[in-house]
Amino acid sequence: MASDQTARADKPGSAIDSVSVLSENSRRRMFTFIRRAGRAVTRDEAAASVGISSKLAAFHLDKLVDAGLLRARYETPGGIRKVGRRPKVYEPTDAQITVSIPDRRHELLADLLLDAVVTEKADENATQAALRAAEARGRRLGEAARQETRPGRLGPERGLTACEGLLEEYGYEPVRETSTLLRLRNCPFHPLAAKAPDLVCGMNQAFLSGYLTGLDANGLQAVLAPEPGECCVRLCPSDPGHLGQTPEDH
Asked: In which region does residue 79 sit, left (phi positive, over 0), alpha (psi from -120 to 50) or beta (all else)?
């Protein structure tokens, strides 16, 4: 099973920043050269690959390191220790860049479906396994967020505030319609959701419900409320009487 970090690492902002770093021609060509080398590459080798000075190459390589696309370390080429300072070498990281506007999270959906396939129980069908896997992933993320932030007791209003970070990170484009009603303007699983809405929307709801459970956000629920061009789920109070509640009422 892929780690939750795989989905989290590819944030829209960081991906766009990485792509912007690669927009410079020499930098992009050196990055390609290093990825294809199959070994750690020195600054001089990188410079020679694009025909620029070592000093200029160092500038570009440091930009690639800062963007998380390369890692740098000191090593003696060939493993032979020589007198003097060891040269700095560069190699690619495991970073994966995906830029989509609006944001899409097809890799999360695929990972959840893979979880469902490899953990399917004898007493459940494929859809039930997928819903279970989605709820379990969301719950783990909610538990991790609660452990990290220690927010205390969360009622509907503070619970939605605590959810917004994850929703932004996963591309839902949350909009606070009232203090206790959160609409999600973007479907991270589009257009796949349109091909199998019962399955994908059900998994989406289970994922967000699991997150609320793990976060221990009391009095909130993830409900199916499809709107054209938006996510099929919205977050609202379990008690309909709390809709439109103002901060003073909380």
From this structure: left
